[in-house]
Amino acid sequence: MILNKYQCGLDFGTSNTAIAITDIHTRKSIFIENDSSVLHFKNTNDYVYSVGKAAINEYVSSDMSGRLLKSIKTLLKQKNFIHTFIFGKRFTPDELAALIIKHFKQQAEKAIGHEIEQVVLGRPVVFSEDPEKEEIAVKRLLKAASNAGFKDVKLLYEPIAAAFSYESSLTQHERVLVADFGGGTSDFTIMELGPDRINAEDRKGDIIANGGLYIGGDMFDSQTMWHKLTPLLGRGVKYASYNKELDVPTTIHHELKKWERSFLLKETKLRRDLNNYYIFSGRDKRLEDLMALIDNNLVYALFQQIEKAKIELSSKTETMVEFARNIINIRELMTLEEFRNFINNETNKIEHCVLSLMENANVKAADIDTVFLTGGSASVVPIRDIFEKLFGPHKIRMGDNFNSIAYGLSLSK
Prior knowledge:
This protein has 413 residues and is of the alpha+beta class. It has 13 helices and 19 strands. The strands form six sheets. The chain has a five-stranded mixed beta sheet with strand order 3-2-1-9-10. The protein has a five-stranded mixed beta sheet with strand order 13-12-11-18-19, with helices on both faces. The protein has a three-stranded antiparallel beta sheet with strand order 5-4-6, sandwiched between helices.
């Protein structure tokens, strides 16, 4: 609390981060802001960095110079990821996360004119199915919040926070399935909600079940890159070798699915081997485009167009994936049905997770009054289709995809 009047909620997400300040007496939002969970370091020795859309704009306008880091939250659970060097300086995962958290803390403090010492910080239901990695992730998240300047940190599952956000609009009791779809995780909570429960000090008895899995919007983008775009960048091209025709190895195309590591590719043997594949393929234009993509550090810029197409398919049945940089000129129609097929394995796992959660809690679809969908990937049509099929369209409610959780965190007792 700030001067015993306000409470701060912070949703540090894989793709987006949001912070909310709420008056604890009126439950009205005083300040709320969200932005991308992205860091950009300029190519200098003074470690000047920017956060969010400013970071993305700076990176793109500087022709992809400097170092861009996205999906930093996913690093928290990676036991073997101890540190990375950025222009010679060592950064641990919690130090990178702290830079983003501190930025949002400062924005909120500027807005209200007071220092913020206490925060309710969101966390996914599942960081990792490996208990050791789960513990490491939680410790790193708490350390990041502390290093950002918070002195009192309380953790709360993100879908429970989303439930509190939805509950603020209720006039009667409901049993609600909250589904939170972020960039890295999909989390679920079944909970009893209602206006009569809002002021209760202990809500543990209202929580029927929690669950989740490590699938989110970033994975949907990666699958789109693999299925739709890597064939345009040389996957499937053949080259001549000792009177045989061989497929160009797909290792480098698999690497393209992880754009955050793509800047390393141009110094690798994989990249050097492309020179020979290109020559012995008869100088196939698709391999030439692939080399240009890697050499000019354009992979992230291409992923931006993939994400744009994904968003457009939330309201359209088809869209164009367009990318014209350097010698590359991609203009491909992508349909909603194609996209559905690209992410079919992921959506099947999400559906199975929801059904298992309900079965273990002995809850049937008819027992659920409302399904509250929130998070950056909640608008993805194949995701919505799962819940409309299981519960019926009439039970589906959509939240503020980027602010619901932060607001709900700020409402937590």
